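Marked as duplicate of an earlier ticket. Keeping the data here for the record.
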Amino acid sequence: MPDRGGGPTGPRIRAGRPSRRARTLLMTLGVLAVLGMAFTMFAGFWTDWLWYRSVHYSSVFTTTLWTKIGLFFVFGLLMAVAVGFNIWLAHRLRPPLSAMSLEQQSLDRYRMGIAPYKTWLLLAVTALVGLIAGASAAGQWRTWLLWVNGVPFHQKDPQFHLDVAFYAFDLPWYRFLLGFGFAAAILCLIAAALTHYLYGGLRVTSPGARATAAATGHLSVLLGVFVALKAVAYWLDRYGLAVKSSDFKATDNWTGLRYVDANAYLPAKTILFCIAVICALLFFATLWRRTWQLPVIGFGLMVLSAILIGGLYPAIVQKFQVQPNEQAKEAPYVQKNLKATRDAYGIDDTKVNEYAGKSTTPDKTVLRDQVDDTASLRILDPNIVSPTFQQLQQIRNYYGFPTNLDVDRYPKNGKDQDTVIGLRELNLDGIPKNNWINDHFRYTHGYGVVAAKGTEADSEGRPVFTEKNLPSTGDLGSYQQQIYYGEKTTTYSIVGGPQKEVDYSDDEGEKTTSYTGNSGVNLDNPVNRAAYAVAFNEPQILYSGAIGKGSRILYNRTPKDRVEAVAPWLTIDGDAYPAVVDHRIQWIVDAYTTSNGYPYASRTTLGDTTADSLTATNNSRAVVAQQNQVNYIRNSVKATVDAYTGEVKLYQWDTRDPVLKTWMKAFPGTVKPRADISGDLMAHLRYPQDLFKVQRELLTRYHVTDAQTFLSGSEVWEVPDDPTNDSGSAVPPYYLSMKMPDQSAQAFSLTTTFTPNGRDNLSAFMAVDSDPRAADYGKIRILKLPTSTTVDGPKQVQSQFNSESDIAETISLLSRGHSKVEYGNLLTVPLDGGLLYAEPVYVRGGSLKYPLLRKVLVTYEGRTAFKDTLGEALDEVFGVKTSTPPDTGTTNPPDTANPTVRQALQDAQKAIDAGKEALKQPQGPDWDAWAKAQKDLEAALKRAEDAQTKADKADKADKTNGGHKS
């Protein structure tokens, strides 16, 4: 129609309302935002699915996902229906007319305001509580899977005589159901009460009755349900006493019933259960009586009973029955705790033997030959020599070694040899230029193994490498050397596409390669590329020309991350270690099944008991705990991760562990049988460190089997602090091949020491056989030192080293200038009733940026030696004479008739003097001059030995010919 107002023509714009174009734009932006959020959520889900499928553990992803979805919908729907039904019922039971009062007049406004939206409001409230309840229930997927798949332990608790599986698998699920029931009852009660109040069923200030009969009956039933659930809680609390932690002076984290629990709390819980059942029935009875009088009396009686019977009575029993004669009253329960704890932590077969701590052989020289037979003393400390490996075998800046190397054993001349091993992994900080292509396409992997003898160092203090150079060559033979998965590989790489990768560099230049493994996720699909571009927040993945046919993305590349991802029900040991197995580099990862529900077994906190001086300085060595506080642990799984393909294999190690059997039922086909472990792999498996650390912490108290001794606390030990550094943390356990007194030959072992509580002398030495090929694998042996005499502990031995005047002077010389002395692992070895200590001493500084072995400290029976080599130190400690010229401090060589020998010994003495002068330089030790002096000394001694041997042979020949010299 024509405009009759004389104004401008065109569309009219209403005041305060956006234009159609603006509305369209806002709607478009809203849709795009929703689509963006949806695709972001999809990208996370899709990339997870692709990764699990790429490692062939898609069943873990689907089982976990469907379990979470099932729990979410079942419990979310139950909660929504329960709350929604009670709101609907309260609305239906509303009175037809509300009494006219100020209270009701004010509520009328709210009733009228929500009247048009009642249905939507009801749906919103129920959906909200359903979402919250469903999300909470989804987090209980482990609890559900353990309950539905649980297998028996075939061990019963000593109080209720129920299988341990009830406490480990059933009771946690029942407690979750009970907690869910309490939450549902409380929410229904609140929702119903608010609805009744809004519609007049409940009145606060209005005259007359405070509640209608319908509201009274409804709320009474809900209160009855709550009290009935409380009755169930009291009944379950009876069984919960078997796994309850409490403060007890005998030990921290005490678990199980004590005298007061069995004789006060247990009957109290039974009585309170009966009272709660009666009280619940009284609430239900209001459906007929329509009065609150009896239920309120019953509820008050229940509360009073809980205070008197559940609180006051046990306190009286503890005060007047237990405390006057505590040891006698508690002893039977302590005995149960001792047995359960030893069983739960696998220390029940620990063998404790008395050990004299003092040698019984008068002539110590005869013990020198026994040392080599007793132990292969490892003077190469894997926790110190990583910078030395880095300096001597890094080759290229884009390679690196982990901070802590590993100890393994490899055959040499028919015998296993303790070996320090590390992988030359990728170090992105050392590549020539950091950019997206270099970081993720060109520099993608490390290269080769580097290994060295654990028991030797060369004349300059460097490791004696058995596998070295680039490409690596040596005793390990041929194997796949590229390392795409490792402890230092924490970023993603895109491989196998048009962009070539740097393989390694040598004198001929840079070698390139292209990944041919089947690991990772294929990026040929544009949907996959888009998903990873969003998931990794890297848009270049979507459009980069460096990605093409055959491109694959590798991520989750550390061994511990991969094992934890494919088996989220396992607790991962803090130290994954590499080994060359069947011509491939394999990472070996120890994994544990744990539980927090073993009755009577005391609890331990994994993060605390597995901490030591190494984890204090290297967080990557910390245990990856599925649950931190446990009272049952087994090394049930040995896992491997291929360094080239990333393939993860899980092997059943403990074939009797019911927790592992339960998880294998939940995730069938994920764990391979123990029989599938190859002989080559078996040769490199070992007893895990974190399990050993948990067991040694428990054995500080639980090495005793008598309740009276346990309660007295007279036999309490502690793990000493590491004396070689200032971390203030526990000394780490050490791997070495050694022979305990009851063994006929050396065995690869994991060892530690104990000191008395609050003192520094030695109380015990502990070792466990760590070679799975041996019949005694896992057998824990403890040598208990006498309490009547004192034997020096690690801290005292270290102090003794530092207080010897000659040693202190040499240490001072070695520390001059910019040099730094670093103490290696202080090894302890039982020998002929006494204890032999050996410690390598490294020096770093001056022109050297890496530690070299300069001295070895050895002590036995109060005799200490500080020499250049382990052999020299042992010779001095045991009083064995050697061909080495005596260190007299003068330049006068020993007398000899042979001029060649005399000249050689003079040269040797000059070399010794030159070495001392090199260490005394004002600006700090001159290591180059010192090394030259050592070489000269070695050459001079060799000349002397050869000349003397030649002379002896000539003399023998003359005697054979009649005694006449030619």
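See parent ticket for discussion. Confidence is low (pLDDT under 50) at residues 1-15, 883-893.
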